[in-house]
Specification:
The structure is a single chain. The chain has 151 residues and is an alpha+beta fold. It has one domain: Lipocalin (Beta Barrel). It is built from three helices and nine strands, in the order ααββαβββββββ. The protein has an eight-stranded antiparallel barrel with strand order 1-3-4-5-6-7-8-9. The longest helix has 20 residues, at 2-21.
Length: 151
């Protein structure tokens, strides 16, 4: 009997040592740059406001051929603007490439020559989740806010 108790105790000790050595590792948190690069992003809302004037829904003014455009943020800090299924001008390229960057704490997004702009633009990242990116700018007496939805 004593032999069986000793064997059972040894077996429990061995099994216990295997389970106590395994550590639950938390997965490495994904950076905001990686989060941007993991999906395609399409503008789904764009508003602007000048001074005391009412908010303008810029997205409502977009042509249907612009509403299907989407952005791909690449790990090499380039972004691809894809014209989507419908191009506004059949002579325009399907895609164009520009640059982007994000600051270390993930609060500011730099976009180089985003569609409609001819220079670098800095945006405050107001929200970034797996399915939504909301950025904004505030300047002298003017604000803009752009919302992207991932797919």
């Amino acid at each position: 009997m004593r032999k069986h108790v000793l064997l059972a105790a040894m077996a429990m000790l061995i099994v216990g040592s295997f389970t106590s050595c395994s550590k639950d590792k938390d997965p490495t948190p994904i950076t905001k740059a990686e989060q941007l690069g993991a999906r395609n992003w399409r503008i789904t809302a764009f508003t602007s406001k000048q001074g005391n004037n009412p908010i303008i829904d810029e997205f409502a003014l977009y042509a249907p051929c612009d509403k299907d455009d989407f952005y791909q943020f690449k790990a090499d800090k380039t972004f691809v603007l894809d014209e989507g299924a419908t191009r506004c001008n059949s002579n325009s390229p399907q895609t164009s490439v520009s640059g982007w960057d994000i600051n270390a704490d993930g609060t500011i997004l730099l976009l180089l020559e985003m569609k409609g702009a001819t220079s670098a633009e800095l945006y405050d990242i107001k929200e970034l989740s797996n399915d939504k990116l909301r950025i904004g700018q505030s300047g002298r007496n003017a604000t803009t806010e752009i919302t992207f939805t991932s797919f």
